[in-house]
Amino acid sequence: MGNSNKTYIGKQLGLDLFNDKGVFVLPAMTLLNTEHIRLLDQHHIFLDNHDIIEIESEAFFHIAVDDCTTAMEMIFDQIKFTKKVPINELRSEVIPFINKVSEKNDFYGMLSALQSKDDYTYRHNIAVGILSTLLGKWLKMDPEELGMLTIAATLHDIGKIMIPAEILTKPGPLSDEEFELMKRHTTIGYELIRDTVGTDHMQALVALQHHERMDGSGYPFGVLGHRITDYSKIVAVADVFHAMTSDRLYRKASPLYEVLKQMGDSAFGKLDPYICRVFMDKLMQSMIGNEVELTDGRIGRIIMILPHDPIRPLVNIADDFIDLSKERKLGIIKVFPK
Predict the structure, then answer these.
(1) Residue 2's pLDDT is what?
(2) Where in this chain does the record put each HD-GYP domain (predicted)?
(3) Is the overall model pTM greater than 0.90, yes or no?
């Protein structure tokens, strides 16, 4: 039994662990992170499969995202105090779980875990980290670039720690003056990441540019698409998608299908059209087999995604096959989980 404890990161302990002197080390049900692995190595405890319990992917998503969100809150607090990003803690406490979650091909299970509870500020960073990592994989990024993207995406909103809480949690629209202040989270985030040893300029640019838009309508500088980095364009898509599908203090989440439709409608101008298209196509592919409700009240099942129009799939109702790309009067109101 060699030392391969690292392979158990993200797995759940099935029993209490003690070292060979009988000292209690970790409780059962712990979801193992890099710190736990280091602790086990120090105590010369080597795990095998009997020590681990298999958990349903949906339960795993909830545990992992909750743990990451708590870790993110602590990281934010630390930055507030030190004005430095604790990059090693981010790499050991958060990134392995984001990678594990994005390996599982269950978009619906994941989405419910990403839904904000009362901790949107922290959970949103984790969600954008996961969604951007998925998107990076779909865009066939190489592992090194993907690793950089995951960290950049998870830190994209880090500048918000310097924005007054009453603005971040205001239950209504921001005044012009408040919005000007809110916009500063991009430049603050850029400076924080730029001044952190072990980060890359591209990661700092994501904090700066994730609200820039292809048509120049974004902020802080209103630059056009050719001046926005690919990393920033990917994070912008993930950021918009999670914000629109989450309950916020001032508005309810929009239905998933409605969000995809809106993203498709505005893609050619605001978000990068190619990245948007890949994202929507993959999400729709993951819905094959899901039941849907159509605008005329009928319930059918998605059986095929059409490459030329991924948002309007082929739907089967009893003996009928409805091609929504041709039946323009009909649309999907709701997608039901599998």
Answers:
(1) 46
(2) 99-295
(3) no
